[in-house]
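Task: complex structure prediction.
Instruction: return structure tokens for all chains below.
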Amino acid sequence: MTAVLFDVPGPRARARYRLAAVAGGLIVVAVLAFVLIRFAQSGLFTAEQWDWITYERIQLTLLYGLLATLRAFAVGAVLALTFGALFATARLSDHAWIRNPAVAIVEFFRAVPLLILMFLLYFGMGISAFWAVVLGLMLYNGSVLAEIFRAGILSVPRGQSEAAYGLGMRKTQVMTAVLLPQALTAMLPTVISQLVVLLKDTALGFIIQYEELLFVGRQLGSQLQLDAPIIPVAIVIAIIYIAMCMLLSLLATRAERWSRSRGRTSAQVAHADVTDVEAGAGQAKV
Amino acid sequence: MNVLLENLDLYGSAFLETIRLFVIAAIGSLVLGTLLAAMRVSPVPVLRWFGAAYVNIFRNTPATLVLFFFAFAYPRLEILDLSFFSRAATALILYTAAFVCEVVRSGINTVPVGQAEASRALGFTFSLTLSQIILPQAIRSVVPPLSSVEIALLKNTTIASGFSVFQAGGIYQTLNEQGYSTFIGLLWVALGFLILVTPLVLLQRRLEKRWSVAR
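Output:
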């Protein structure tokens, strides 16, 4: 599409594009230069501001923060996937007394901000910071995953399950042998994208004093004997997060290519408005 | 119930702050996001690269970290002395714009190629094609995901309470100091967000029906 938006440029258009490129480039460079100059004036490029990175104890502290982030991510991801699978099954149940409560629970946890959930668990119920973060991640992302799983199962054409029933399979068999394998292949990229969201959401733990990467960074950044290097620390932490999330996103792209090339699923997933949006908006359709 | 009734003005002013932050950040992110999407499909490579870099950086950074930067690191830069509220709004605009950009761009891809070809055949320039033909259709087709992004923004405003912006997310502190139950107080906050989010979802469904492009 994007290549159709404009013609192959002729000499005059090329000159105009060059002008736009120079003007746009200058604006971008000017903004970056302004920020860099401000950084420099605040002492970002002095040795004192970067001293801390050479201390082994501080490297270890950052590493512990990173491990705490990854621990919350790992436990939260496993719990959220389980929660999502359970509630997707419940929402597809034939029994209204299972289906309706499941709908209510999923809708509630998707509409309430994750931070408020964590506050409820931490301040309201006195659960430890780690479990408040993990359970919050489970309830929120689990609810989103439940919707993703459900959408995946519903996206398998009806003919598939009708044919399976026609062969005399029972509901459990139809689900496990026909629908789930196709739905999972189609949904894998979206599920991984949701895990990127979950990874980013662990940073909320900072606000309820869970000692993860950002929390450790805040402490390092305010230490006066290190010259309070809050900006360098924030930059390093940002690089760590971006690297981790990009690795996961890369996995999602790989999974998408794999599920497309495998070509064994008849499930149709609206990639444009599922993967792209929810990959980070952090939230699914409410 | 007591917690809510005895602190109605507290809840009222906090939720008003939330709504104010949301409206400002929503408008800002829609404008900046559309601009970034235009850059990402423009014929000028420098602008395309900048748009791509922007989106990749902000999409892979936690919103908390962006707010963290504006709360603690930004004052060191001594650029402009902004209030906590404006800094929170700026952070939320910068963060959400990346998602708006991706949604609008995916919308641009759903407009049939013939539309762009026809407008080129009529001699429209890139900016005319984009602003008169493509974007009006693209934005209508992405109403549902776009509202999801803005609903996410509404929920993300609570993060600002972790950085001294007084709004709905921060009510529990005041209640706690006065000896009220934090749990009940927070349940009312959760309910408040349900009440804020539901009309947006209904609006989203109505717009989706009304604005859907017949193809």
